UniProtKB/TrEMBL annotation:
Pfam families named in the record: MFS_1
Name under which the protein is recorded: Major facilitator superfamily domain-containing protein
Species: Roridomyces roridus
Record's bilayer topology term: Multi-pass membrane protein
Ranges annotated as spanning the membrane: 142-165, 171-189, 201-222, 234-255, 302-327, 339-360, 372-391, 403-427, 434-453, 465-486
Swiss-Prot/TrEMBL keywords: Membrane, Transmembrane, Transmembrane helix, Transport
UniProt superkingdom: Eukaryota
């Protein structure tokens, strides 16, 4: 953590900040480093800037740690459970397929693949409206309402009797799940510094890998349940009820921004806002700016990051939608194939924590996010190569199972790419536009790739596995190109600017410089416009 301790020598007129986190500053205009009303004027000033009025920019490391801890305990558990639940909900169709969904609904040919893809068609259509709503309104409220509605869609699966009903439920599920990931990405960038964000992205996506493990054990038990409902319908009943409850919790407990967080006092809000302002990425601005929108579309760095997300989702198509069918094809029964999926999700969670921890807590790896991901992509290439070239037999099925777990390493890429997006683009409209572009790419990839998994090739899906392997090779190239472009731009800016604030938010050498840096970070400038901004690839 940056050295944020206040200097020992202070003006006798300044308020003593050693009284603890609950101390409030008396507004004394004209003191060095004090934010005044005149500093907060202008249409381009971030809405969160008001929390700094009359506050000093000096605070102790202990104060900051206390604030970050309160934010973590309030936000991270709710975000992690909701994100993990979203993954379980959207992939439940894969688990239901192992319990006879396809035969019960009379699916044939590409029907199942289309049931997978239609989710992403609607997700794609809802991406831009969702991004607008998240920027314009309270993201916690938007996500909470959406969560309740997608829980209702899960419950509606209880009444599905044919392909048409399945398509309708999956379509609506995609619409209502669309705000969650871009919304949580927006929340993370509002609350955490560039250095802190990768690990927080790792925390709230951690249950993408770990929540499916108890869920799969629960599904195993439901598979033995009797009663009038088929076993796969029990899955949707339980998931739907839990999701609706979680939506209510998100609605009432996720705060909008550090500037108005009800669980922080005035002093803590000011510290929370000031930390992010130093990173030069902004917090909240509801104005839509055409020039920032155009800049996002014209920025090659944006397109390379979009390409990495598009290509990386190919591996997710395997582990999210087809892993159960493929493992069953190795010669395992329905229930055993369900349980054998759990190591894949455990591996995903551990690798995600390792990579995000490395780039958050070690200077060596902080700007090596994408090179680290290229190693994971190479593992996926090796795994798909073996699965593609090997015919399953009783003797080699354990080897093939191990290769499927290797392919699961791909799932750590989503978390880290989200952190790359979150820390490397500034300006409210530009960030929202980049977020929308990346989730459009996410949807298109998840529409296209499942179609390569042809029903006539089940359970080996040779065409689909080959497609994933080719996508991953292209992904490695894009990772390195994106990393090189951002690194070179950082070096160019270093040469042009003798003094530049560290992107992790280190303080300047005096109060006037601190104040200038903070106000600069609250002017809703883009990463191109703000030459003090540094990329973290």
């Amino acid at each position: 953590m940056s050295n944020l301790a206040a200097t020992e020598s202070r003006s006798s007129d300044a308020t003593d900040l050693s009284k603890g986190a609950d101390a409030k500053l008396e507004y004394q205009p004209g003191l060095p480093g004090i934010i005044e009303d005149s500093d907060l004027q202008g249409d381009d000033v971030d809405e969160a800037a008001a929390a700094l009025r009359g506050q000093s920019l000096d605070y102790t490391e202990q104060e900051e740690s206390r604030v970050v801890s309160k934010i973590d305990w309030r936000m991270m558990p709710i975000m992690a459970i909701t994100c993990g639940l979203q993954f379980v909900d959207k992939s439940a169709v894969s688990n239901a397929a192992t319990f006879g969904l396809q035969s019960d609904l009379h699916l044939h040919g590409q029907n199942y693949s289309w049931a997978v893809s239609v989710f992403y068609f609607s997700y794609l259509g809802a991406t831009w409206p969702s991004t607008y709503l998240l920027q314009r309104f309270h993201p916690g409220k938007v996500i909470g309402i959406a969560c309740v509605l997608w829980g209702v869609c899960i419950l509606a699966m209880l009444g599905v009797t044919n392909f048409g009903g399945l398509i309708a439920c999956r379509f609506l599920l995609g619409v209502f799940e669309a705000p969650l990931s871009p919304g949580f990405m927006m929340i993370t960038t509002r609350w955490y510094t560039q250095k802190e964000q990768p690990f927080r992205f790792g925390l709230w996506t951690l249950l993408n890998g770990w929540l499916p493990i108890p869920a799969l054990v629960m599904f195993y038990g439901l598979g033995h349940a009797g009663g009038p409902l088929q076993p796969w319908r029990h899955i949707f009943l339980v998931l739907g009820l839990v999701t609706v409850l979680m939506g209510v919790i998100v609605f009432f407990f996720i705060a909008d921004s550090p500037a108005n967080a009800p669980f922080l006092n005035d002093r803590e809000r000011a510290i929370a806002v000031e930390r992010i302002a130093r990173c030069q990425t902004g917090i909240k601005n509801t104005q839509w700016k055409r020039e920032q929108f155009i800049e996002a579309l014209a920025d090659p760095r944006v397109w390379l990051v979009v390409a990495t997300l598009f290509l990386s989702q190919s591996g997710g198509a395997v582990t999210t939608n087809f892993i159960g069918i493929i493992i069953k094809g190795f010669g395992y029964n329905q229930l055993r194939s369900l349980l054998l999926q759990t190591p894949a999700f455990a591996i995903q969670g551990f690798i995600c924590l390792i990579i995000t921890g490395l780039v958050s807590f070690t200077k060596t790896f902080r700007n090596l996010k994408q090179p680290l991901l290229s190693i994971a992509a190479c593992c996926v290439i090796a795994g798909t190569g073996v699965v593609y070239s090997t015919t399953p037999t009783a003797q080699n099925r354990q080897l093939l199972l191990g290769m499927m777990y290797m392919i699961a390493l791909n799932n750590c890429s989503f978390t880290t790419i989200m952190s790359v997006i979150g820390v490397n683009f500034a300006g409210a409209t530009k960030k929202s536009t980049v977020s929308a572009m990346t989730f459009v790419a996410y949807c298109v990839s998840n529409i296209v790739v499942p179609q390569a998994f042809r029903g006539t090739e089940a359970p080996t899906y040779h065409s689909g596995i080959l497609t994933v392997m080719c996508f991953q090779i292209a992904l490695v190239i894009c990772y390195w190109a994106s990393w090189a472009l951002m690194t070179l731009e950082n070096k160019r800016r270093d040469k042009l600017q003798a003094r530049h604030p560290h992107p992790d938010g280190e303080k300047g050498v005096d109060s006037a410089m601190q104040k200038e840096d903070v106000l600069q970070g609250l002017k809703d400038l883009t990463d191109r416009e703000n030459m003090t901004f540094r990329y973290s690839p």
